[in-house]
Amino acid sequence: MSMLSDRRVLAIAIPIVLSNATVPILGAVDTAVVGQLGQAAPIGAVGLGAVILSAFYWFFGFLRMGTTGLAAQSIGAKDTSETNAILWRVILIGLGAGAVLIVAQSLLFMAAFSIAPASAEVESLTHTYMRIRIWSAPAAIALYGLNGWLIAHERTRAVFVIQLVMNGLNIGLDLWFVLGLDYGIEGVAFATVIAELIGFALAIWLCRSAIFGQFQVIKDRLLATAPLRHMFNVNSDILVRTLCLQVIFVSFTMLGSGLGDVSLAANQVLLQFLYITAYALDGFAFAAEALVGQALGAKNKALLRRSAILCSKWGGISVILLSLSFAIWGGTLIDLMAKDTAVQIEARHYLIYMILAPSLGIASWMLDGIFIGATQTRDMRNMMILSMGIYLVSVAILLPSLGNHGLWISMLISFVARGVTLGLRYPRIEQRAEA
Which domain holds residue 292? Predict the structure, then answer.
C-alpha cells in the first residue's frame, strides 16, 4: 500500500469523476437514437421506463456505500478472508435482489404506473421496454457491491473501465439495433441488458482472485452471524439516510411545481448544476471512503485524520473551481439546457444559489464519504433525519413569503445542516481509531 499523498488521493478520485462523466452521455444517446424513430411516444417510454427501473435499483444502492466502508476496514485490518467474504456476500445479495425484482415485476410495474400514469401508448411501450430490461436486474444490482469493493481497494481505474465498457457497448448496440436493424424500443432495451450483463462479467473477472481464491476459508466465514448483522445494520442505516435525502429532493420538485410551469422548468435546469457538483465531488468522497476505512481498520488515528484532510482539501479545490465556472458560464449553460426565453430568464434569477451551493455543500458531501468509510452509519442516519426536519421547517417558514427563493434557500440550509451535524459527530470516528 503506497504512502498517503496527494497523488494517491487523485489516483482514486479522477477515475470516478471520469466514470461519472459517461453517465449523462449514455442518457443523451438513448434519447437521440429513439428520437430518430420520429414519434414522441417511444422517447417518453424509454425515459419513463429508465426512471422507474432506476428507482427500483436505487433501493439497493446501499450495497455500494456499505460495501466500500466494510471492505476498506477489513483491508486496513489485513483480514483478507473477511474482505473476500464481503465480496461474496454482496454478489449473492445483489443476484438475489435482482431475482426478486424479476419475479415481482408485474406487481412492481402496476404500482409504478398507479403513481405515474401515462397515455395508453406510452404505457404499453414502457411495459415492453421494462419487461426486457428487468432481466439484467441481478447483474445491475450486484454491480453496486462489486464497484464498492473495488473502490475500497482503491481500484477505481477498474470501476472506470467497467463503466466505459458498459456505456460504450450500450451506445454501439443502441445504434446498431435501432438504426441498423430497426428493432425500435426493444433494441434500446436489449442493448442495455447485454451491456449490463457484460459489465457484470467484466467485474467478476477483475475480482476473480478474490472470488475464486481461498474458497474453503471464505465459505466458512460467509454466513458468520456477527459480520452479517453488522452488514445489515450498516446498510439499513444508509437506506434510511438515502430515503430522507430523496424526501428532500422529491418534495423540492413537487413544491416547485406549485409555483408554475416556468419556475418548475427553471428549477429542473438548475438542479443539473447540483448533479454536476455531485459528480465532481463523488471522486473525492469515494477516496475518503476507502482511505478513512483503511485507516480505521488499521486503528491509525493520525492516518485517518490525514486521509480526511487530504480528500477534503481536493474536494475544496474542486468546489472553488465549480463555483467560479458557474459564475462565469452559468448563463451559457442555462441557455444550452433551455431554449424557452421565459425559463432562461427565470433560471438566471436563482443562479446565485448554484454559485453558492458547492461551497455550502462541500462539508456534507465530504463528511458523507468519511462516515461511510468509518461505517458510522447510525450517525449518518440520525443527522440526515435531523437535517430533513430542518429543511421542512425552513420550507414552511420561507416558501410562503419568498416563493422559489425560499425553496432554494431551504435546500442550501439542508446542505449546511448536514455538514454541521455530521461535523459535530466526527470526533467519535477518531475515538474509535484509538480504541
Answer: 224-435
